[in-house]
Amino acid sequence: MSMTEQRGLSMIELLVFIVIVGIAVTGMLSVYSSVTKTSANPMLQKQALAVAESLLDEVLSKPYTYCDPDDAQADTAISATIGPTGCATTTEAGIGPEAGENRYSTTTPFDNVNDYDGYFMDSSTAGIRDLSDTAIQGLGAYRALIGVGNSPAIFNGVPANETLIVTVTVTGPDNRPVTLTGYRTRYAPTL
Length: 191
What we know:
With about 190 residues, the chain is α+β, with helices and mostly antiparallel strands.
């Protein structure tokens, strides 16, 4: 009898191969599934970044002077005192808003960078609000916190007490914070 050589897979070998591949695919899919569940939603992060950029721009666009910006000598004062070389009537009291000022007021709005220290928006304020105090649709689950403080002397030739550091932190519904930081130097006096 002659024996012919056979090639191919037996049924057992084929079944073992299918089981091994099935286990490997299941393992890979479970890893992809867990990564997808824990990854940040890019839209939420982009929205939080857009809100943080907008708030940082708003704060940094405000004056930073020795006097309240409404003071007659705000542009020429060289110290936070009342008098000929200082303010006419109202010094900028330090970090934080003056009594009665708020972001939405048409008569006593935040008018200086340091007024924004400690300002926040969250679900108790219906989320993120525009300057007219209107809740922005779709941003009710976002939170924002603004911090303003004295910066160390990081700019060559600018004393530490002449620079503020502004930090804006916005947290989206996914609880992942986005933090932006900016610096504002005092520009007064402008003699």
